[in-house]
Amino acid sequence: MKRLAALLLALPLMAQADTTLRFCAAGSPKTFDPAMTDSGIDHVAHLPIFGTLVEIRRGTDQLIPGLATSWSVSPDGLAYTFELRRGVSWHSVDGFKPTREFNADDVLFTFGRLLSRDSAFAKAFPSVSPYVVSFGWEKLIRQVEKLGEHQVRFTLAERDASFLSALSFAFTMIQSAELGAQLLKAGTPQRIAQLPVGTGPFQFKSFRADSVIRYVKHPGWWRQAERPRADQLVYAITPDASVRAQRLKRDECDIAAPVGPAELDMLKKDPAIKLATAPGMNVGILAYNTKRPALSKVEVRQALDMAIDKAAILRAVYGEAGTLATSPIPAANWAHDATLKAQPHDPAKARALLQKAGVLPLNITLWAMPVVRNYNPNGQRMAQMIQSDWAKVGVTARIVSYEWGEYLRRIDAGEHDAALSGWNGDPEPANTAGQLACGAASGTFWCNPAYDRLLAEARQALKQEDRKLLYAKAQRLAMQELPWTPIAYGRLAVPQRAAVKGFVVDLDGGMYFDGVMK
Q: What is the Cα–Cα distance from 317 to 227, expressed in whole angstroms?
């Protein structure tokens, strides 16, 4: 009887522990404002909080209703009218208590600050949203207007087949106009980056940089049939992949951000661990800063590309978790041109090209990614192998690295010569292809009007087969000019405890926890 009494007393504690979902995250977000970042680490931190007008069904490329219940497109393809979901409640957090539900004013506020460089919110930050630039939305979207309390219309300057899909991206996450008005009144618009208020499954609770993010269940989440299974969600910031793997083994987290091939091999042997896998819609790349005189020459970039032994990198860095990249658009994407082939590894020809270009001896910096990603499981090892390959053709590379947020900031500022990076894409090819458009934050500063015209034509074409042909031409041009050296496509593999149920790997690498339970 005493043992039974003790067990009964312990049950509430056990139940409480079981309602906390623990995620070992790969890094610390630099902002909680989804509009002003293109960092995957930031967006993973935003996903529990916010919602978008359009969503993608988990594990597929199918568009489904989100905060918009339906939409219609005018015959000329220029006007998109959205019916907005009713009865959607906003989060209540420390510092903000909503007085109304989601409506058209929130859509106007969200897109108003995305599209206007003159708003107080735009001026509170040093730059416009990188996605707005890569999609050309400042010119594309002529007007966003409120037709009723729960109806809005977007009017475009030209047809754009990528527009609807883009409304599912994290940078379009809907933010509270009421919160915006409160911050403006207080003269603190910049606080929107530290006070995230959304309509998503979890509410923001607290954040300690480089340590932990805490969320709690949003009791008023509009998906009645899919309420979060966990009462609390905890992100344990764990940048080191091997530490993430060990924490998962020790049952200190339930799901871990991707780890490297060596860690995966170790975790596969543990019966308490399982893997959720999917073909990755990503690409690992080496970006050349074309502002540098030597790297502005196509023949130099071609030489550096063919000097790299990519097959050796695949074996040593990716193992079974990657395939050779032959295009900037991921192989899992419908627009990928499978006829393209990578340049053969040819050190002798590479040296001859460099000599002809008159750049030898060449001294450059080679930036190594400091974090593990599906598209690059080991940035330091890859950089060392490239450094060795380049040395054989007369190129001296000094390896440089920084903390991830600083790494990205400095690349955007053009401080690098060549930098390892990558992109987690999605079913809309305009996303990944747009990273090489003029003005996009691709790390290349490459601008080719012919490439941009092909992307514009592809966005305006309504038939997928016509779009695919145009994207194929764009890919061929990118592979001739090589502002990026595509290296590999990484396979998605998310390790988790065997007791976890309901986690689905998203093709774009997004992490969603609302339907997950233990």
A: 40
pLDDT in tens, 450-501: 999 999 999 889 889 999 999 999 999 999 999 999 999 998 889 999 999 9
Question: Quick check: 247 and 238 in contact, CB under 8 A?
Answer: yes
Between helices 464-481 and 449-460, what is the axis angle to 10°? 170
Domains of the chain, by residue range, sit at 24-201, 282-490
For 233-273, the pLDDT digits (tens) are 999 999 999 999 999 999 999 999 988 888 988 999 999 99
Class of domain 282-490: alpha beta
> How far is residue 441's CA from residue 236's CA, in Å, rounded to a whole number?
29
Q: What angle do CA 32, 36, 37 make, to 5 degrees?
A: 80
Residue 242 burial (CB count, 10 A): 14
Q: Is 116 exposed, middle or buried (CB count within 10 Å of its CB: 0-12, 13-18, 19+)? A: middle
Counts for the chain of helices (H) and strands (E), in that order = 18, 19
Which numeric CATH code is attached to 24-201?
Answer: 3.90.76.10
Rounded alpha-carbon distances, angstroms, from residue 259 to 50, 239, 245, 286, 426: 26, 10, 7, 20, 21
